[in-house]
Every structure is written in structure tokens, then in C-alpha cells.
Amino acid sequence: KPVILSGMQPSSDSLHLGNYIGALGNWVTMQDEFDAFYCVVDLHAITVPQDPKELRERTRSTAAQYIAAGIDTDKSTLFIQSHVQAHTQIAWVLNTITGFGEASRMTQFKDKSAKQGADAASVGLFTYPILMAADILAYQANVVPVGEDQRQHLELTRDLAMRFNSRFGETFTIPEGHILKETAKIYDLQTPTAKMSKSAETEAGLLKIMDDPAVTAKKVMRAVTDADGEIRFDRENKPGVANLLTIFSVLSGRSIDDLVNEYAGGGYGGLKKDLAEQVTASFTPIRERTNELLSDPAELDRILGKAADRASEVADATLAKVYDAIGLLPRH
Ligand code: ATP
Ligand code: MG
């Protein structure tokens, strides 16, 4: 079976609708056809300031949300990034073949460092895409299902893999991105031109899987729209309404045209009310199952430990090839 790898950062107590639609939902459908590696990328989460106790809780909770959303740990290898040493070891080697200018062009670094102030941003945040490349290449992944925001990082991963192979001999599989066009980017409900993000400054526009249904409903009802009051799909001029229609369409399985036909002529209120119900109906079973899983952390840790053993076997084999290819003297 071809290999897929993907991951999310434990940078919040909850995944959000963008993570669910852009990534996790696809992971669930892809786990049957692929040898799937899904990880919680905790080493990425420390590229911005974090609280140690929260990080530990969020890491477990993120893994639990994967399982609750449908990742089957008998089919897929679900593990914690920091449990597999080879990620950082391969990342170091990739650091040495990445150009400074090349890394400087990554727009996510520009966005995230601008939020923190350029002096506060860490070198870790800067080299983040190189660790991400190592995550992917360690498993010789063929396919990487991610949201649109990761397109540039994936391109860098491919460039680094090709560069390494041409300098040192065939070592890495060149991965393909799997980015679904329509649904690959969900926007913040308060700022519908910015992507929904775990690390958003305010939570008002963020639909979190672990939120109380009442909170979710309130956030949907307060979503920013526009003044003309007309329901139609126009991403450019009506980004708020377009985002709501996209979300509704993906979660309900109905086409956007179908939804526009039904709601055209009514105000935004009716659309929002039904959408709120749709979102809470999708989230509730996941939230409840997550809480169940979190009530037995020892069992969860056991599952993660077993998966880390399997992941390490694969990643260590790649690391050995990498070290050999670049000419490091083996230890005897
Ligand atoms: P952070 O703000 O901490 O970077 P994030 O919300 O961007 O968090 P990540 O953990 O970085 O989430 O990304 C996990 C996965 O979710 C990636 O595949 C990413 O492409 C996808 N993703 C993130 N935000 C969105 C979004 N708004 N729409 C669609 N997919 C998204
Ligand atoms: Mg992100």
C-alpha cells in the first residue's frame, strides 16, 4: 500500500472545523487505501511560546480527537512526533541542504512572526518547515493530505527530497500533496478573509470540536456577513456568506447551489440557525467520544506507545540510509 503521513499541532485544547474539514475528515477516508501514519506534532507546537502542563494535556487530547473522529488505531499508526527520535535527526541533515533565502520565503513564518513581533520569533519557528519535511520524508510518504495553507511547505519538502537524492543518491520518496480544492481552506467566522487557526488571537471566529454546543451556536449566529442581506456564493465580495455556505455544504453533503436555492430570499438568520445545528450535530459525537477516551489516559498512552514503536522502525531505517548517504562514520 502507498504511504500517507499527516499531522496536527497540539497548539490548542481543541481542533477546529478547518482542521476537521481540511485534514482529519480526509484522513479517516484515506486510512483504508493507504498505510497511514498520523501524528501529533508536539515539536512543532513549541515553536511558539507554550505552557508545559497545557502542552502535555493538549497532546493527549489531540490524539483522542483523532480517534474520536474515526482514526482506527488498528489500521493507522497514530503516534506522537517527539516519541520518534529520527524526526529531529533527519531535520538536522535537511537543515544543512536548505538555503537561507529559500527558508526565508515561507509565508507562514512571515505571518506567525509578524504576530509575535520579529524579535520575539524563534529560530525554531523559522526552521519549522524543515522539521515538517523530515516528518514526511522519514516515512517515505507518497501522499500528504493537508489544507491549502501547507501547500508551500509541501513544495519545499519535495524540493529538499529531490535535492538530497540528486546530491547523495536515491534516498527519499518524493511526496505528492493531496489538497482538496473546495474545502481546503475554511475561514475565520469573524475575519472571513483569514484562515481559521488554532492560534487565532480571539476565539469568536473559531469553531472548536470541544466547545459546548451552546458556544458553537453563538459563534455561528454572530458570524460576520455583510450588509446586502442576499444569500449567494461570491467569495470575493461576500466572503463571510461564502464561508458559511462552504461549511454547510461540506458538513451536510448538499451542493452549494442547492443550499442557495433553499435559503435565497430568507435572511442570514435562518441560514445561520440551521448551520449551527449542522455543526453541533457533526461535533457532538466526536466531543463525547474524546471525553470518554480522556477518562482513561493510561490506555491511550499504551496505544500511542505501541504506535511509536512501529513508527520508529520505519523512521530509523530512513535515518540510517540518510546518515550512510551523506558519509557519517557508522558507530561500531
Ligand atoms: P496553528 O494556528 O497552531 O498553526 P492550525 O489551525 O494552522 O494551527 P495545524 O495544526 O497547523 O492547525 O494544521 C493541521 C492541519 O489542518 C493541516 O493539514 C492544515 O493544512 C489544516 N488546516 C489548518 N487550518 C485550516 C483551515 N482553516 N482550513 C482547512 N485546513 C486547515
Ligand atoms: Mg498551522
Structural class: mainly alpha
Helix count, DSSP H or I runs of 4 or more residues: 13
Largest sheet: 3 strands, parallel
- Mean pLDDT score, rounded? 95
| Radius of gyration, taken over Cα atoms and rounded to an integer in Å | 21 Å
Question: Ranges with pLDDT <50 over ≥5 residues?
Answer: none
Instruction: Estimate what percentage of residues fall within beta strands.
Output: 5-15%
State the helicity in percent bands: 40-55%
What is the number of E strands? 5
Q: What distance lies between the first and last C-alpha atoms, to the nearest angstrom?
A: 35 Å
The distinct ligands, each listed once, are: adenosine-5'-triphosphate, magnesium ion
Task: Give the topology, please.
Layout: E1 3-8, H1 17-30, E2 35-40, H2 42-45, H3 52-69, E3 77-80, H4 86-95, H5 100-104, H6 107-116, H7 123-137, E4 143-145, H8 151-168, E5 176-178, H9 213-221, H10 239-252, H11 256-263, H12 268-294, H13 297-326
Parallel strand pairs: 1-2, 2-3, 4-5
